[in-house]
Amino acid sequence: MSQLQRKDIIFSNYVNGKQTFIIPLTFTDINDAKGIITRIGYGGDVWELRVDLLSPPGKEVGDVNLPSLGYVKEQVEALQAMSSLPILFTIRTKSQGGKFPDDASKEALDLILLAVASGIAYVDVEIEWPPAMLKEITEKKSSTKVVASYHSWTGKVAWTSEELMQRFAAADAFGDIIKLSILSAAIEDCYELSLFVRNYKLKYSKPLLAVGMGPNGQLSRITSPISLVTHPLIPFPSAPGQLSLAQVHQARHLIGQLPKQEISVVGEENVTEKVSRALQAAFLELGYPHLCSVCKGKNGNVTSELDVTGLDSTSSMVTVVAEEFTQCTGRPAPWSVIDNCLQ
């Protein structure tokens, strides 16, 4: 299915108050992720393909990297064949924290138009690119959504500053989705960021990805309506301070945003123990605080009962556990984790 035939998951989640998780892939060759892509993607909504980090086998990525059009096309097709998640196609320039040459706007435009022609759902476009380039992307983007992005690494741009408001206005005029990534000098910057997001929602409807980079900005990665998350199996995070999805869920629980649920599994003893263990493993995989047991109780914030009476096959147990996981989390289940646990 073409990326463009899918619904806009970022907008849908945003208007429904559901957090969106974008997973940046920092592989130089996306084929290196083939055996682990399913596990990396559990709980995520969108892949971010970091085009500026792509490089053919045997060719090192230096301080500046400009992958060829042909190689990028192969990488896009490989990722589309591996996973059905929509893709955010990102070219991050050297000055904004990436590897792509700042003066290669012609090459960047060719790559972005390749993404549009390939049916990519989202393209990240830095607002610092030349106006003529931005105009051409607007004219040719078709149904692809543009994420208009701005990054500041100085640690001196405040969320209340006039400079930030000017960058915001430029992104709002150009993009379907606005992205503002600012290096946080102190944790207090996250408080200003939260107020910025709250005030934004009162006036605007476009999805906003606002994040504080670096260790002092990690709180914003936990609370942001749209967050970029990494995974232990990914070579390295795409930005400093980036957390895994499991860490985000653990932190959200600690700050009172993700209540613990307790599930009592009832039925035949040999089945209840297997199901309880598999469901607990699924929760742990993604950092959910929920607890499973084979005893009834009313001690959790939310307690439910899972009746597995009559289950007599591994496949039926996998299905029931997966359905219960989705019921509790609102997310697709990590099927391979559940299946491995029940074998």
Automatic annotation (TrEMBL):
Transmembrane segments: none annotated. It comes from the Eukaryota. It holds the Pfam family DHquinase_I. GO terms for molecular function: 3-dehydroquinate dehydratase activity. Its EC number is 4.2.1.10. It is an enzyme of class 4 (lyase). It catalyses: 3-dehydroquinate = 3-dehydroshikimate + H2O. The keyword Protease does not apply. Gene3D superfamilies: Aldolase class I (3.20.20.70). One of its GO terms (biological process) is 3,4-dihydroxybenzoate biosynthetic process. This is 3-dehydroquinate dehydratase. It comes from Penicillium canescens.
